[in-house]
């Protein structure tokens, strides 16, 4: 039986995006594969990127790092953005993970554990994780990476980008032996002086644009599709779905498609949502329910069992996210477990 709903991950497109970011920045790309590689599968994604030349990865959580190490073997360097949290030092060491140390307690815990190799985060304005520049610690043993994170990289016109970049350049110079890592996906597109020694993209590897809209330099990696479960002709005057969410003023042809909010199709997608089928973008009608959505396919040649693209090459994930009032990151990391995952390439 072929799965009625599937997530297809195009590893060749992933590889294209990886090399596009390398070419754009001129420095090594250190992929961010946190949150299961933004929902696409950290292990197959990391393995393909290793085959393309990636040697260093970032995850957020310690447990993500442990699982990744187990899967990809001892060679690649893995940094954990949360750092040395609580009593994680021994777990980090056992899996040869390098914490990004964010505050003095983390440095103390790592030192006490004789932790070894680690990174350091400087907070240049995000006010989230990391040392303020004026509190930046002395270089510590094992420090091999210093990083900071942009708050507004998706908006090239935002003057804060330059301020953060200059602050990072100044403070990171105090760590001559550490690799300097600054740019996330958006930062890769801000110009050569944002690249430093290595870049740290996530979303652009996975096909999301750096400014929240599709970018022609990147290819779609994730395609989410689901099957038409039923077709009906809706007489004028009748309604569709919960709370009579759509009222037909003319006769419509309705496809009921097997994906709903339990699959990560945001309820906020109606009324602006669209899906792609038979060469056209078709509107969602009424409310998204848990397992199904209703699609207006009036006038189209579609049959039971045909597949609707929720996002992918024909319906960019950025556009689907905008329609739902969110960002591509949230759509990808919300993809439900009921989709069968398949990998191309
Ligand atoms: C998630 C994350 C990234 C990747 O961000 P993208 O915008 O997806 O490229 C890079 N650095 C840090 C610190 C992050 O938390």
Automatic annotation (TrEMBL):
CDD domains: PLPDE_III_AR (cd00430). Its EC number is 5.1.1.1. The active site is at 34 (proton acceptor), 242 (proton acceptor). GO terms for molecular function: alanine racemase activity. It is an enzyme of class 5 (isomerase). Its cofactor is pyridoxal 5'-phosphate. The modification N6-(pyridoxal phosphate)lysine is found at residue 34. Pathway: Amino-acid biosynthesis; D-alanine biosynthesis; D-alanine from L-alanine: step 1/1. SUPFAM superfamilies: Alanine racemase C-terminal domain-like, PLP-binding barrel. InterPro entries: Ala_racemase, Ala_racemase/Decarboxylase_C, Ala_racemase_C, Ala_racemase_N, Ala_racemase_pyridoxalP-BS, PLP-binding_barrel. Substrate binds at residues 128, 290. It catalyses: L-alanine = D-alanine. Residues 221-344 form the Alanine racemase C-terminal domain. Transmembrane segments: none annotated. Keywords: Isomerase, Pyridoxal phosphate. HAMAP family: Ala_racemase (MF_01201). Catalyzes the interconversion of L-alanine and D-alanine. May also act on other amino acids. Belongs to the alanine racemase family. This is Alanine racemase. The lineage of its organism: Bacteria, Pseudomonadati, Pseudomonadota, Alphaproteobacteria, Caulobacterales. The gene is alr.
